[in-house]
Write a structure and sequence with these properties.
2 domains, single chain, five-stranded mixed β-sheet, 12 helices, Aspartate Aminotransferase, domain 2, Aspartate Aminotransferase, domain 1, binds pyridoxal-5'-phosphate, seven-stranded mixed β-sheet, alpha/beta, about 375 residues
């Protein structure tokens, strides 16, 4: 971890400190309010729950500290992605999406942008720069892409996009601001599903948009206020609490994933393992250059659908669940969700369990299917 990352992590639990008055609670109070006391000219104060809320302000302050950029919070990752599209695009625009990224982003463009006259093309993450960005208003990168874990050179994509007047958006869900810093690499916008590792406890959906461009932030926040796609204060409060431990959780998960990926790769039951932290991975050199950590997701293929199901369902320290980034290790056979992968393809999200115990459980379940 770099010195700036360490000082960012150290300051995170103390962000409210300078604003506390004597007797104020140290933990964040939860403000459940649709209306606020607003006599006379109420500008500059909270007025109505669709415009602002002190609990959002606190979680946005934390996210802004982590991203080193203004942030707007949303009730889910998809709400954040929708806000970027609907606030910035107009009829006649052309956009470029990853063909191997989170499938709902493509579904959103196909089903709801196309009818408004926005054209959408797709390219694989590993060759996203091939063909350049001429004619595009917006290019959208997910790196590492979920679930195949290919990566894209974000700095090169930003440079190429800017040359053609396109905006570069990066979905940083799989990495969090501790694992990868797309805005520092030149991206214009970060979107993230804080539903995953940022909150980390699998009990809430949440998302955010980060940008250092004031016009973009104004447009996205105007979209939220007008469309009404606002986060609930209680969800914001939970994410605020989750973010306080992101640094320790993410550190443990990434360190464990490095150990587990190496051992999985050597196991006879496993093929086509992808983890950007392994020297043998096609993404490794680029990952070393652009990522702060290698993440906690590992993907691999087992011999069949049944073997993959048995491996997941019979591992004592693994939850069979979609989503990822929780404190508990979880895994999913992604063909089930319609991803274009083999029936035995597994996406594993390494959790916070002590690594040797976790490995013993994983190895026992693998031995069981290869016996
Ligand atoms: C989960 C996810 C999303 C969507 O987040 P929700 O909170 O489920 O709306 C977007 N992008 C990626 C990469 C994701 O993994």
């Amino acid at each position: 971890m770099s010195e700036t990352a360490r000082s960012r992590a150290a300051a995170l639990p103390h962000l409210r400190r300078s604003r506390l008055a004597k007797g104020d609670p140290i933990p964040l109070p939860l403000t459940m309010a649709a209306i606020f006391h607003a006599p006379g000219d109420a500008t500059g104060f909270n007025q109505y729950g669709r415009f602002s809320n002190p609990t959002w302000d606190a979680v946005e302050h934390m996210l802004a500290h982590l991203e080193d950029a203004p942030c707007i919070a949303f009730p889910s990752g998809m709400a954040a992605i929708s806000a970027v599209f609907f606030a910035l695009l107009k009829s006649g625009d052309r956009i470029l999406l990853p063909s191997d990224g989170y499938h709902t982003t493509r579904a959103l463009a196909e089903r709801f942008l196309k009818p408004f006259g926005v054209t959408c093309d797709v390219r694989p993450t590993s060759t996203f720069l091939d063909g350049g960005f001429e004619g595009y208003r917006l290019a959208f990168v997910e790196s590492p892409a979920n679930p195949g874990l290919d990566i894209c050179d974000i700095a090169a994509a930003a440079e190429a996009a800017h040359k053609e007047g396109a905006v570069l958006v990066v979905d940083n869900t799989t990495m969090t601001p501790f694992g990868q810093r797309p805005l520092d690499l030149g991206a214009d916008i970060v979107v993230a599903a804080d539903t995953k590792a940022a909150n980390g406890h699998s009990d809430v959906l949440f998302g955010h948009v980060a940008s250092r461009d004031a016009e973009i932030i104004t447009a996205v926040s105007g979209w939220r206020e007008t469309s009404g796609g606002i986060p609930g204060p209680f969800e914001a409060w939970l994410v605020h609490r989750g973010l306080e431990t992101l640094d320790v959780r993410f550190d443990r998960m990434c360190s464990s994933a490095e150990v587990i990926a190496r051992r999985l790769k050597a196991h006879r039951a496993i093929s086509s393992l992808r983890f950007p932290g392994l020297e043998s991975d096609p993404s490794h050199n680029l990952a070393r250059a652009q990522m702060e950590r290698f993440g906690f997701l590992i993907s691999f293929v087992l011999a069949s659908e049944d073997k993959a199901e048995d491996f997941i369902n019979n591992c004592a320290l693994m939850q069979a669940a979609t989503s990822f980034g929780g404190v508990h290790t979880s895994a999913e056979r992604r063909a089930k969700r319609g991803d274009a992968v083999l029936p035995g393809f597994v996406r594993l999200s390494v959790g916070c369990e002590p690594v040797e115990e976790l490995w013993r459980a994983i190895e026992a379940s693998l031995d069981n299917i290869s016996a």
